[in-house]
Prior knowledge:
Low-confidence stretches: 1-9
Distance between the termini: 23 Å
Strand order of the largest sheet: 6-7-8-3-9-10-12-11
Shape: globular
CATH topology: Rossmann fold
Structural class: alpha/beta
Largest sheet: 8 strands, mixed
Radius of gyration: 20 Å
Helix content: 25-40%
Oligomer: single chain
Bound molecules: adenosine-5'-triphosphate, iron/sulfur cluster, magnesium ion
Number of helices: 13
Amino acid sequence: MIAATQGHRLMALLSVRDLSVAFETRDGLVRAVNDVTFSLDAGKVLALLGESGSGKSVTLRAILGLHPAVRTRVSGEVLLKGRDVNRLDEAARERLRGGVVSMVFQEPMTALDPVYTIGEQIVETLVQHRGLDRRGASRRARELLDLVQVPSPERCLASYPHEISGGMRQRAMIAIALACDPELLLADEPTTALDVTVQAQILWLLRDLQQRLGLAVIFVTHDLGVAAEIADAAAVMYAGRIVEQAPIRDLFRRPAHPYTEGLMQATVRRGQKGRALVPIPGAPPNLIALPAGCAFAPRCPRAYDACLATLPSFHPVAAGHAARCHLVA
Length: 329
Ligand SMILES: Nc1ncnc2c1ncn2[C@@H]1O[C@H](COP(=O)(O)OP(=O)(O)OP(=O)(O)O)[C@@H](O)[C@H]1O
Ligand code: SF4
Ligand SMILES: [Mg+2]
Protein backbone atom coordinates (compact mmCIF):
# COMPACT_ATOMS: atom_id res chain seq x y z
CA MET A 1 0.00 0.00 0.00
CA ILE A 2 1.11 3.57 -0.31
CA ALA A 3 2.47 5.36 2.69
CA ALA A 4 5.05 7.98 3.34
CA THR A 5 6.27 7.43 6.86
CA GLN A 6 9.95 7.07 7.57
CA GLY A 7 9.63 3.59 9.10
CA HIS A 8 7.57 2.29 6.21
CA ARG A 9 10.16 3.44 3.68
CA LEU A 10 12.66 0.92 5.00
CA MET A 11 10.44 -1.95 3.89
CA ALA A 12 9.03 -0.56 0.66
CA LEU A 13 10.07 -1.98 -2.71
CA LEU A 14 9.86 1.53 -4.14
CA SER A 15 10.06 4.75 -2.20
CA VAL A 16 9.83 8.08 -4.00
CA ARG A 17 10.54 11.17 -1.94
CA ASP A 18 10.21 14.83 -2.99
CA LEU A 19 10.74 13.92 -6.63
CA SER A 20 10.75 16.94 -8.93
CA VAL A 21 11.46 17.03 -12.65
CA ALA A 22 11.75 20.27 -14.61
CA PHE A 23 12.62 20.81 -18.27
CA GLU A 24 14.59 23.83 -19.45
CA THR A 25 12.84 25.10 -22.57
CA ARG A 26 13.05 28.25 -24.71
CA ASP A 27 9.91 29.55 -23.02
CA GLY A 28 11.09 28.86 -19.48
CA LEU A 29 11.34 26.09 -16.92
CA VAL A 30 8.53 23.53 -17.33
CA ARG A 31 7.85 22.16 -13.83
CA ALA A 32 6.41 18.83 -14.90
CA VAL A 33 6.68 16.94 -11.59
CA ASN A 34 6.73 18.66 -8.20
CA ASP A 35 7.56 17.17 -4.79
CA VAL A 36 6.05 13.76 -5.52
CA THR A 37 6.25 11.41 -2.53
CA PHE A 38 4.83 7.89 -2.29
CA SER A 39 5.90 4.34 -1.67
CA LEU A 40 4.85 0.93 -2.86
CA ASP A 41 5.28 -2.46 -1.22
CA ALA A 42 6.21 -5.63 -3.07
CA GLY A 43 3.22 -7.28 -4.74
CA LYS A 44 0.94 -4.22 -4.63
CA VAL A 45 -0.79 -2.39 -7.48
CA LEU A 46 -0.90 1.40 -7.66
CA ALA A 47 -2.95 3.33 -10.23
CA LEU A 48 -1.67 6.73 -11.29
CA LEU A 49 -4.59 8.93 -12.32
CA GLY A 50 -4.97 12.45 -13.67
CA GLU A 51 -5.69 14.50 -16.77
CA SER A 52 -3.39 14.70 -19.76
CA GLY A 53 -0.20 16.62 -18.95
CA SER A 54 -0.41 16.08 -15.18
CA GLY A 55 3.03 14.43 -15.02
CA LYS A 56 2.22 10.72 -14.93
CA SER A 57 4.61 9.61 -17.69
CA VAL A 58 7.39 11.93 -16.51
CA THR A 59 7.08 10.37 -13.02
CA LEU A 60 7.34 6.84 -14.42
CA ARG A 61 10.37 7.75 -16.52
CA ALA A 62 12.03 9.30 -13.45
CA ILE A 63 11.52 6.06 -11.51
CA LEU A 64 13.51 4.30 -14.21
CA GLY A 65 16.12 7.08 -14.29
CA LEU A 66 15.39 7.58 -17.98
CA HIS A 67 15.45 11.38 -18.16
CA PRO A 68 18.57 12.60 -19.96
CA ALA A 69 20.79 14.94 -17.92
CA VAL A 70 20.71 17.55 -20.67
CA ARG A 71 18.29 20.42 -19.99
CA THR A 72 16.45 18.34 -17.39
CA ARG A 73 16.57 18.97 -13.64
CA VAL A 74 15.74 15.96 -11.52
CA SER A 75 15.80 16.22 -7.73
CA GLY A 76 14.61 14.11 -4.82
CA GLU A 77 14.99 10.42 -4.13
CA VAL A 78 13.82 7.33 -5.99
CA LEU A 79 14.75 4.35 -3.83
CA LEU A 80 14.33 0.97 -5.50
CA LYS A 81 15.02 -1.74 -2.93
CA GLY A 82 16.86 0.93 -0.99
CA ARG A 83 19.11 2.07 -3.87
CA ASP A 84 18.73 5.64 -5.11
CA VAL A 85 18.26 5.55 -8.88
CA ASN A 86 19.47 9.15 -9.17
CA ARG A 87 22.81 8.36 -7.52
CA LEU A 88 23.74 5.28 -9.52
CA ASP A 89 25.95 5.28 -12.58
CA GLU A 90 24.34 4.31 -15.87
CA ALA A 91 25.61 0.71 -15.74
CA ALA A 92 24.12 0.13 -12.29
CA ARG A 93 20.88 1.77 -13.37
CA GLU A 94 20.73 -0.50 -16.39
CA ARG A 95 21.09 -3.51 -14.08
CA LEU A 96 18.17 -2.25 -11.97
CA ARG A 97 16.13 -1.76 -15.14
CA GLY A 98 17.01 -5.26 -16.22
CA GLY A 99 16.40 -7.06 -12.95
CA VAL A 100 14.21 -5.05 -10.59
CA VAL A 101 11.99 -2.81 -12.66
CA SER A 102 10.64 -2.97 -16.21
CA MET A 103 8.47 -0.63 -18.22
CA VAL A 104 5.74 -1.70 -20.61
CA PHE A 105 3.53 -0.08 -23.21
CA GLN A 106 4.54 3.49 -23.68
CA GLU A 107 4.80 3.45 -27.44
CA PRO A 108 4.22 -0.17 -28.47
CA MET A 109 5.21 0.44 -32.08
CA THR A 110 8.44 2.30 -31.37
CA ALA A 111 9.45 0.19 -28.36
CA LEU A 112 9.53 -2.96 -30.49
CA ASP A 113 12.12 -3.18 -33.24
CA PRO A 114 10.32 -3.44 -36.62
CA VAL A 115 13.11 -5.43 -38.31
CA TYR A 116 13.22 -8.35 -35.86
CA THR A 117 10.53 -10.92 -35.15
CA ILE A 118 8.91 -10.98 -31.71
CA GLY A 119 10.73 -14.26 -31.01
CA GLU A 120 14.13 -12.80 -31.93
CA GLN A 121 13.53 -9.81 -29.67
CA ILE A 122 12.54 -11.89 -26.65
CA VAL A 123 15.41 -14.32 -27.21
CA GLU A 124 17.90 -11.46 -27.51
CA THR A 125 16.70 -9.97 -24.22
CA LEU A 126 17.04 -13.34 -22.49
CA VAL A 127 20.52 -13.98 -23.90
CA GLN A 128 21.77 -10.51 -22.95
CA HIS A 129 20.16 -10.06 -19.57
CA ARG A 130 19.71 -13.58 -18.26
CA GLY A 131 22.75 -15.22 -19.83
CA LEU A 132 20.70 -18.06 -21.38
CA ASP A 133 21.93 -19.92 -24.48
CA ARG A 134 19.78 -19.61 -27.61
CA ARG A 135 18.05 -22.94 -27.10
CA GLY A 136 17.10 -22.21 -23.50
CA ALA A 137 16.08 -18.69 -24.47
CA SER A 138 13.77 -20.00 -27.23
CA ARG A 139 12.07 -22.32 -24.77
CA ARG A 140 11.68 -19.52 -22.23
CA ALA A 141 10.34 -17.14 -24.92
CA ARG A 142 7.58 -19.61 -25.67
CA GLU A 143 6.77 -19.91 -21.93
CA LEU A 144 6.64 -16.15 -21.59
CA LEU A 145 4.12 -15.86 -24.44
CA ASP A 146 2.00 -18.50 -22.71
CA LEU A 147 2.26 -16.49 -19.52
CA VAL A 148 0.91 -13.36 -21.22
CA GLN A 149 -1.88 -15.45 -22.79
CA VAL A 150 -1.00 -15.10 -26.45
CA PRO A 151 -3.37 -17.54 -28.22
CA SER A 152 -0.91 -18.79 -30.89
CA PRO A 153 2.56 -18.42 -29.36
CA GLU A 154 4.46 -20.06 -32.24
CA ARG A 155 2.88 -17.77 -34.81
CA CYS A 156 3.47 -14.72 -32.64
CA LEU A 157 7.15 -15.64 -32.12
CA ALA A 158 7.64 -15.85 -35.90
CA SER A 159 5.85 -12.55 -36.62
CA TYR A 160 7.23 -9.07 -37.11
CA PRO A 161 5.63 -6.39 -34.89
CA HIS A 162 3.55 -4.94 -37.75
CA GLU A 163 2.07 -8.37 -38.51
CA ILE A 164 0.23 -8.69 -35.20
CA SER A 165 -2.57 -6.66 -33.62
CA GLY A 166 -2.03 -3.79 -31.20
CA GLY A 167 -3.23 -5.93 -28.29
CA MET A 168 -0.80 -8.76 -29.21
CA ARG A 169 2.04 -6.24 -29.52
CA GLN A 170 1.33 -5.10 -25.99
CA ARG A 171 1.33 -8.67 -24.75
CA ALA A 172 4.65 -9.22 -26.53
CA MET A 173 6.03 -6.12 -24.82
CA ILE A 174 4.90 -7.40 -21.45
CA ALA A 175 6.62 -10.72 -22.25
CA ILE A 176 9.86 -8.83 -22.97
CA ALA A 177 9.44 -6.83 -19.77
CA LEU A 178 8.96 -10.06 -17.81
CA ALA A 179 11.97 -11.74 -19.42
CA CYS A 180 14.24 -10.33 -16.72
CA ASP A 181 12.03 -11.39 -13.80
CA PRO A 182 11.36 -7.87 -12.51
CA GLU A 183 9.77 -7.19 -9.13
CA LEU A 184 8.11 -3.98 -10.32
CA LEU A 185 6.34 -3.34 -13.60
CA LEU A 186 5.57 0.19 -14.77
CA ALA A 187 2.76 0.33 -17.31
CA ASP A 188 2.03 3.57 -19.10
CA GLU A 189 -1.27 3.77 -20.91
CA PRO A 190 -0.67 3.69 -24.65
CA THR A 191 -1.10 7.08 -26.26
CA THR A 192 -2.10 5.42 -29.51
CA ALA A 193 -5.83 4.87 -29.93
CA LEU A 194 -6.13 1.27 -28.80
CA ASP A 195 -9.59 -0.16 -28.44
CA VAL A 196 -10.75 0.47 -24.84
CA THR A 197 -11.75 -3.17 -24.44
CA VAL A 198 -8.25 -4.25 -25.45
CA GLN A 199 -6.77 -1.79 -22.96
CA ALA A 200 -8.95 -3.17 -20.19
CA GLN A 201 -7.91 -6.73 -21.14
CA ILE A 202 -4.26 -5.75 -20.89
CA LEU A 203 -4.80 -4.25 -17.45
CA TRP A 204 -6.59 -7.42 -16.34
CA LEU A 205 -3.67 -9.44 -17.66
CA LEU A 206 -1.35 -7.31 -15.52
CA ARG A 207 -3.52 -7.99 -12.50
CA ASP A 208 -3.40 -11.71 -13.23
CA LEU A 209 0.40 -11.63 -13.61
CA GLN A 210 0.69 -9.56 -10.48
CA GLN A 211 -1.17 -12.23 -8.53
CA ARG A 212 0.63 -15.18 -10.07
CA LEU A 213 4.15 -13.74 -9.94
CA GLY A 214 3.78 -11.48 -6.89
CA LEU A 215 4.76 -8.45 -8.95
CA ALA A 216 4.29 -4.88 -7.87
CA VAL A 217 2.68 -2.76 -10.60
CA ILE A 218 2.25 0.95 -11.18
CA PHE A 219 -0.09 1.66 -14.05
CA VAL A 220 -1.35 4.83 -15.66
CA THR A 221 -4.90 4.84 -16.92
CA HIS A 222 -7.76 7.11 -17.80
CA ASP A 223 -10.18 4.26 -17.13
CA LEU A 224 -11.32 4.79 -13.54
CA GLY A 225 -13.58 1.74 -13.72
CA VAL A 226 -10.63 -0.57 -14.38
CA ALA A 227 -8.51 1.24 -11.78
CA ALA A 228 -11.27 0.68 -9.22
CA GLU A 229 -11.28 -3.04 -9.91
CA ILE A 230 -7.63 -3.89 -10.16
CA ALA A 231 -5.60 -1.44 -8.08
CA ASP A 232 -4.91 -1.64 -4.36
CA ALA A 233 -4.29 2.09 -4.13
CA ALA A 234 -4.31 5.20 -6.28
CA ALA A 235 -2.46 8.47 -6.55
CA VAL A 236 -4.21 11.35 -8.31
CA MET A 237 -1.94 13.88 -10.04
CA TYR A 238 -2.70 17.47 -10.93
CA ALA A 239 -0.19 19.93 -12.40
CA GLY A 240 2.74 17.69 -11.51
CA ARG A 241 1.73 17.10 -7.90
CA ILE A 242 0.00 14.21 -6.20
CA VAL A 243 -3.14 15.85 -4.83
CA GLU A 244 -4.71 12.77 -3.27
CA GLN A 245 -3.55 9.27 -2.44
CA ALA A 246 -5.64 6.54 -0.91
CA PRO A 247 -6.51 2.86 -0.80
CA ILE A 248 -8.62 2.40 -3.92
CA ARG A 249 -11.95 1.80 -2.19
CA ASP A 250 -11.58 4.89 -0.01
CA LEU A 251 -10.79 7.01 -3.03
CA PHE A 252 -13.99 6.02 -4.78
CA ARG A 253 -16.21 6.02 -1.71
CA ARG A 254 -14.87 9.14 -0.15
CA PRO A 255 -12.86 11.34 -2.54
CA ALA A 256 -11.51 14.21 -0.45
CA HIS A 257 -10.01 16.49 -3.08
CA PRO A 258 -12.35 18.54 -5.30
CA TYR A 259 -10.21 17.60 -8.31
CA THR A 260 -10.69 13.87 -7.63
CA GLU A 261 -14.43 14.44 -7.31
CA GLY A 262 -14.42 16.32 -10.61
CA LEU A 263 -12.42 13.57 -12.29
CA MET A 264 -14.95 10.98 -11.19
CA GLN A 265 -17.88 13.04 -12.40
CA ALA A 266 -16.14 13.50 -15.74
CA THR A 267 -15.54 9.79 -16.31
CA VAL A 268 -17.84 6.87 -16.99
CA ARG A 269 -17.49 4.05 -14.48
CA ARG A 270 -18.69 0.52 -14.90
CA GLY A 271 -22.34 0.20 -13.89
CA GLN A 272 -22.93 3.93 -14.22
CA LYS A 273 -23.41 4.15 -17.96
CA GLY A 274 -26.66 6.13 -17.77
CA ARG A 275 -25.17 8.88 -15.64
CA ALA A 276 -24.60 12.32 -17.20
CA LEU A 277 -20.93 13.25 -17.43
CA VAL A 278 -19.89 16.61 -16.07
CA PRO A 279 -16.54 17.72 -17.50
CA ILE A 280 -14.30 19.82 -15.25
CA PRO A 281 -14.49 23.35 -16.68
CA GLY A 282 -11.28 25.20 -17.56
CA ALA A 283 -7.81 23.84 -18.25
CA PRO A 284 -4.75 22.86 -16.17
CA PRO A 285 -2.29 25.68 -15.39
CA ASN A 286 0.79 26.58 -17.38
CA LEU A 287 3.61 24.53 -15.85
CA ILE A 288 6.05 27.38 -16.59
CA ALA A 289 4.11 29.79 -14.37
CA LEU A 290 2.54 27.73 -11.60
CA PRO A 291 0.46 29.80 -9.17
CA ALA A 292 1.65 30.38 -5.59
CA GLY A 293 -1.46 28.79 -4.08
CA CYS A 294 -3.42 25.69 -5.07
CA ALA A 295 -2.94 24.96 -8.77
CA PHE A 296 -6.54 23.76 -9.01
CA ALA A 297 -8.01 27.00 -7.58
CA PRO A 298 -9.06 28.58 -10.92
CA ARG A 299 -11.20 25.50 -11.66
CA CYS A 300 -12.29 24.58 -8.16
CA PRO A 301 -15.96 25.15 -7.27
CA ARG A 302 -14.99 25.38 -3.59
CA ALA A 303 -11.99 27.71 -3.79
CA TYR A 304 -11.71 30.51 -1.24
CA ASP A 305 -9.15 33.21 -0.38
CA ALA A 306 -6.56 30.94 1.26
CA CYS A 307 -6.47 28.74 -1.86
CA LEU A 308 -4.97 31.53 -3.97
CA ALA A 309 -2.44 32.57 -1.33
CA THR A 310 -1.03 29.31 0.05
CA LEU A 311 -0.05 25.98 -1.42
CA PRO A 312 -2.02 23.33 0.47
CA SER A 313 0.05 20.62 2.11
CA PHE A 314 -1.03 17.00 2.58
CA HIS A 315 -3.65 16.46 5.25
CA PRO A 316 -4.69 13.01 6.49
CA VAL A 317 -8.24 11.90 5.70
CA ALA A 318 -8.08 8.32 7.03
CA ALA A 319 -5.47 5.57 7.33
CA GLY A 320 -3.34 5.68 4.17
CA HIS A 321 -5.57 8.40 2.73
CA ALA A 322 -4.40 12.01 2.39
CA ALA A 323 -5.28 15.03 0.25
CA ARG A 324 -3.61 18.32 -0.61
CA CYS A 325 -6.51 20.66 0.01
CA HIS A 326 -7.14 23.39 2.57
CA LEU A 327 -10.65 22.08 3.10
CA VAL A 328 -9.29 18.82 4.49
CA ALA A 329 -7.15 20.53 7.13
N1 LIG B 1 11.11 16.75 -22.57
C1 LIG B 1 10.16 17.64 -22.24
N2 LIG B 1 10.36 18.97 -22.40
C2 LIG B 1 9.43 19.88 -22.04
N3 LIG B 1 8.23 19.55 -21.50
C3 LIG B 1 7.98 18.25 -21.32
C4 LIG B 1 8.92 17.21 -21.67
N4 LIG B 1 8.36 16.01 -21.37
C5 LIG B 1 7.15 16.27 -20.85
N5 LIG B 1 6.91 17.61 -20.82
C6 LIG B 1 5.71 18.27 -20.28
O1 LIG B 1 5.52 17.81 -18.96
C7 LIG B 1 4.13 17.74 -18.68
C8 LIG B 1 3.80 16.38 -18.12
O2 LIG B 1 3.92 15.43 -19.16
P1 LIG B 1 3.52 13.91 -19.01
O3 LIG B 1 3.92 13.27 -20.29
O4 LIG B 1 4.10 13.34 -17.77
O5 LIG B 1 1.94 13.98 -18.88
P2 LIG B 1 0.93 12.76 -18.66
O6 LIG B 1 0.29 12.96 -17.33
O7 LIG B 1 1.63 11.49 -18.89
O8 LIG B 1 -0.18 13.04 -19.78
P3 LIG B 1 -0.97 11.99 -20.77
O9 LIG B 1 -2.12 11.49 -19.94
O10 LIG B 1 -1.40 12.86 -21.90
O11 LIG B 1 0.00 10.93 -21.17
C9 LIG B 1 3.39 18.06 -19.97
O12 LIG B 1 2.99 19.40 -19.92
C10 LIG B 1 4.45 17.87 -21.02
O13 LIG B 1 4.23 18.71 -22.11
S1 SF4 C 1 -7.15 23.98 -1.77
FE1 SF4 C 1 -8.88 25.26 -2.32
S2 SF4 C 1 -8.78 25.48 -4.55
FE2 SF4 C 1 -7.48 23.77 -3.97
S3 SF4 C 1 -8.78 22.03 -4.18
FE3 SF4 C 1 -8.92 22.64 -2.03
S4 SF4 C 1 -10.68 24.02 -1.98
FE4 SF4 C 1 -10.15 23.79 -4.13
MG1 LIG D 1 1.53 10.05 -20.37
